[in-house]
Design brief:
- This protein is α/β, with parallel strands linked by helices.
- The protein is 38% helix and 18% strand.
- The chain has nine helices and ten strands.
- A hairpin with a 5-residue loop joins strand 5 and strand 6.
- The relative contact order is 0.20.
């Protein structure tokens, strides 16, 4: 793909934090993975919060399913709220299908701590879109418009498709912070070829991030073997709500364990 283009509100940025800006204590990054990814990401995020990690107060970057997680955490919505929404069947050509579900979830809310990754259909460049400048419903629709499954979504004259077409997590575009937590529903060999490919790309992104921020910490959380098996072997299974429902409580418990470990490490 061509070079990245970042967009926050109506201002084009180079994606790098200002030299005089103080880093946040924590930033969150949520990766893609369909409804399965929403259940996993939201479960982990809520588990971290229950363990005392200030997830809801941290700037968050979501990609595809992760954009739904970032928006839900910012608005204090749980997975059962999202699972109750009439999810569109996939694939679909109805342009209103995904935005209707997103409006049902988030109405016209905006939130300055949320940003999402989406790819401009025309330029094929990544844009980082600001939840303080646009409705979250529009942002999650744009970031989740998987080519071949959902039509592109238009924001201010630009058509966007799934941010996962650039990167499953876009770790490099996370908010400047002393610590970053990456929740990656699809990364890992236990998810087969799809997981191995996502894991390989993510590992490369993490190496680059660490080389640029040697004095900062980054934590990667991905599904256990038990949770990964629930994704199934068919990629369309990632959009099956019934398959995703049992993922949430397991992810919640995994998030709690990670939160306790992070708290213990920080205290030490």
């Amino acid at each position: 793909m061509p070079h990245e283009h970042s967009q926050r509100g109506n201002v084009d940025l180079d994606g790098r934090p200002g030299l005089l800006a103080r880093p946040h204590p924590l930033s969150m990054v949520y990766g893609g993975g369909g409804v399965y990814g929403i259940a996993y990401g939201l479960g982990v995020a809520r588990g971290l919060a229950e363990a005392g990690i200030a997830v809801a107060q941290a700037p968050s970057l979501g990609t595809s399913a992760g954009s739904w997680v970032a928006a839900a955490m910012a608005l204090d919505l749980d997975f059962h709220h999202l699972a109750a929404i009439d999810a569109p069947a996939v694939p679909t050509r109805r342009r209103s299908a995904l935005i209707t579900a997103a409006r049902e979830a988030f109405a016209e809310a905006r939130h300055p701590l949320v940003s999402v990754s989406a790819v401009s259909l025309r330029s094929r460049r990544r844009h980082i879109l600001d939840g303080g400048a646009y409705d979250l419903a529009d942002l999650v629709t744009a970031s989740s418009a998987v080519p071949g499954l959902f039509p592109p979504h238009r924001i201010e004259g630009r058509l966007y498709v799934d941010g996962g077409m650039w990167s499953a997590t876009s770790v490099d575009a996370s908010a400047d912070a002393e610590a970053v937590i990456v929740v990656a529903p699809l990364a890992g060999s236990v998810l087969g070829p799809m997981g191995r490919a996502a894991g390989f790309l993510l590992a490369r992104e993490l190496r680059t991030w660490r080389s640029r921020h040697p004095d900062r910490s980054i934590t990667l959380i991905r599904p256990t073997r038990q949770i990964a098996r629930m994704a199934g072997g068919n990629p369309l299974g990632l959009f099956d709500v019934d398959r995703a429902l049992p993922v949430y409580p397991l992810a919640l418990e995994q998030g709690r364990r990670w939160g306790e470990e992070i708290q213990a490490t920080t205290a030490a």
